[in-house]
Amino acid sequence: MKTDVLKIDSSKAGSIDLDDAIFGLEPRKDILHRCVVYQLAKRQQGTHHAKERNEVAATSKKFGRQKGGGGARHGNRAAPQFRGGGKAHGPRPRSHAVDLPKKVRRLALKHALSAKVADGSLIIIDEAKFTDTKTKAIAAAFEKLNIGNALILDSSIDEKFGLAARNLPGVDLLPVVGANVYDILRKEKLVLTKAAVEGLEARLK
């Protein structure tokens, strides 16, 4: 499919052919959901831990009479029912990661790109370069392109462009090697440079 290419000042810079096998699929929510769950589960630290009965520093001396106390015959203050005692079956450090085949992850990235095309949220620019490092200047340029909440992908992040855009609260910058389903879907717009399109097509073919 043919798509217009814009310059950073919002003027036209020609057009580009997008591969239908990557950008023209019918988005499948089930595949996108599986990949988002995979990403979010994998990034959890899993360092949660509660002290159990054998880890609590408490007396193990019998603290009451065997008979006549009117209650249970306890012999350890570390028991879970006492204040300061160990947690019964508490959380342990573990990995939250789930398995997802590489083919499904690649397919999910194609569907995420296709979803942005389908709802008209994809913008192609010729290059992500800027002559100034002022945030105000690049914010004005983005306003002309109707970019407020967006992910910008390029083959490599230009230093001046990165400095100018990094303080914009709704804009994220990523090199094309870091393209992922979650970051693409959570932003309203996806902005790709021509180099990023070439990189994605080479990666996903």
List key phrases describing it:
205 residues; alpha/beta; two-stranded antiparallel sheet; 7 helices; 15% strand; rRNA-binding; Large ribosomal subunit protein uL4; Ribosomal_uL4_dom_sf; Ribosomal_uL4
Can you walk me through this structure?
It is a single chain. By secondary structure, this protein is of the alpha/beta class. The protein folds into two domains: 2-45 and 96-204, Ribosomal Protein L4, Chain: A; 50-90, no CATH class. The protein is built from seven helices and six strands. The strands form two sheets. Strands 3-6-4-5 form a four-stranded parallel sheet. A two-stranded antiparallel sheet has the order 1-2. Helix 5 (159-165) links the parallel strand 4 (150-154) and strand 5. Helix 2 packs across helix 3 (102-118). The longest helix has 17 residues, at 102-118. It is elongated and about 90 Å long. 21% of the residues are buried. Part of the 50S ribosomal subunit. InterPro entries: Ribosomal_uL4 (IPR002136), Ribosomal_uL4-like (IPR013005), Ribosomal_uL4_dom_sf (IPR023574). Keywords: Ribonucleoprotein, Ribosomal protein, RNA-binding, rRNA-binding. Belongs to the universal ribosomal protein uL4 family. Residues 43-97 are annotated as: Disordered.
